[in-house]
Amino acid sequence: MAPMRPRPSISKERFPAVFSNFKTQTYHDPSARGVGSHAIRCLDWNPLGTLIASGSADRTLRVWNPDRPNVRYSTELKGHDASIEKVAFNPVKDAELCSLSADGVLKLWDVRTKTCINEIKGLGSAVSLVWHPDGEGIIVGNKTDTLFFIDPAQFKVVAEHAQDVQTNEIAFCWSGKRIFVSTGEGRVKILSYPDLQPVFQCGWEDKPLTLNGHTSSCLSLALQPTARFLASGGSDSIISLWDTKDWLCQRTLIEMTGPVRNISFSWDGMYVVGGSDEGNGLEIAHVDTGVYVHSVKSQTPSPVVAWHPTKYQLAYADFGGLKIIGIDSDRKHNN
Hints:
The chain is an all-beta fold. The chain has a single domain (about 15-330), classed as YVTN repeat-like/Quinoprotein amine dehydrogenase (Methylamine Dehydrogenase, Chain H, 7 Propeller), CATH 2.130.10.10. It has helices at about 15-20, 330; strands at about 25, 40-45, 50-55, 60-65, 75, 85-90, 95-100, 105-110, 115-120, 125-130, 140, 145-150, 155-160, 165-170, 180-185, 185-190, 200, 205-210, 210, 220-225, 230-235, 240-245, 250-255, 260-265, 270-275, 280-285, 290-295, 305, 315-320, 320-325. The strands form 8 sheets. The protein has a 4-stranded antiparallel β-sheet with strand order 1-30-29-28, with no helix packed on it. A 4-stranded antiparallel β-sheet has the order 2-3-4-5, with no helix packed on it. Strands 6-7-8-9 form a 4-stranded antiparallel β-sheet, with no helix packed on it. Strand 12 and strand 13 form a beta hairpin. The radius of gyration is 19 Å and the shape is globular. The mean pLDDT is about 95.
């Protein structure tokens, strides 16, 4: 893919005024009639940010053109028989999408042709899905704490790894040599990939280093695009920001209401936001200071959030449907 044109970042001081002037666009899906069975459970942008996929509790899997909010300009991908729990675009192929349903079915789609290229069944009650940064591997995790390693080329499971602790979310480092695993103990494990060995040891205790930042289950993870910070979110309503140089918690964000189900960094890594299935709104924080710079009001809780990969556009779930702030950001960014 062609390299992205660098965009200027918005300073902490300017962000509230600039972002509050951005338009919020609603995407009209006739299936969405408020909260309930249609509720969106996952979102993901493709690498160029020209498409965004949404997966819903009623099995609706849809790929939207963010510039065309009417549903007739979207693509519905049909074939799942259970709630769509995760969607993830291949990080190096703009039109290749994976979707994971609650009944343990993983499907690989070509969104240009609306074709299901391949599928894997029998992954259990699935909860997590992540691509290797080079697009050469996929990891799926389920509620029985088994990690499945999948070869996308053959689209088959090549390894299974049972974990000894409740395993919730998985994230890769950008080199693809390590994974971060959030656990029910409120910790984050740092493991080598693909052999899943602890990367660091606590010298004074002679045991694997884990990041202990939550008083209850750690549910979500996100690595900053610049890789300086790893964010972890817990059922204690806290987002912890870990410095990846010394693995110390630099700050905690405590303005969330309810469990932190999802975390997303802005394209430049300057801002972070969490999603929760409680409360009515989103709180955007400046990463380097922990200062909250903008509040987004919503009609219902917004458990899923996703920043655009190259722009200040924020997608989130509200009232059963998709909304995106900043579709007009290119016109207003430099004003």
